[in-house]
């Protein structure tokens, strides 16, 4: 193979990268344990269950089968899980 002599292009000027004060990452691995502690302290799960019971709501049941029981895994398998 021959070496390419074309100079490498800096594509940063061709992209729209908005300037924002928000951090680029949410820091979820650090934030989630704090959220769970707060929800536990508030008794959030128990309140949600009590509310559902007081409204007479049926329990939520999700019947989700094996990931690829009808053949080999493919992109449709991922699409089915994402949607």
Can you describe what's shown?
It is a single chain. With 83 residues, the chain is mainly alpha-helical. It has a domain at 27-55. 41% of the residues lie in helices and 0% in strands. It is built from three helices and no strands. The chain has helices at 28-42, 44-54, 75-82. The longest helix has 15 residues, at 28-42. It is flat and about 70 Å long. The model has no long low-confidence stretch (mean pLDDT 85).
Backbone CA Rg:
24 Å
Helix content: 40-55%
Helix-strand category: mainly alpha
Mean pLDDT: 85
What is the number of strand segments?
0
First-to-last CA distance: 44 Å
The low-pLDDT segments are none
Strand fraction: under 5%
Number of DSSP helical runs: 3
Please describe the biggest sheet, giving its number of strands, its sense, and whether it closes into a barrel: none
**Shape, please?**
flat
Q: Would you list the SSEs in sequence order as H and E? A: HHH
Can I get a quick summary?
Helix content is 41%, strand content 0%. The protein is mostly helical and 83 residues long.
């Amino acid at each position: 193979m021959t070496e390419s002599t074309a100079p490498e292009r800096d594509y940063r000027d061709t992209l729209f990268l908005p300037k924002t004060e928000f951090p680029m990452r949410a820091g979820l691995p650090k934030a989630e344990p704090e959220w769970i502690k707060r929800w536990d302290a508030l008794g959030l799960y128990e309140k949600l269950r009590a509310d559902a019971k007081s409204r007479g709501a049926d329990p939520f049941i999700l019947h989700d089968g094996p990931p690829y029981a009808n053949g080999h895994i493919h992109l449709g398998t991922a699409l089915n899980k994402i949607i």
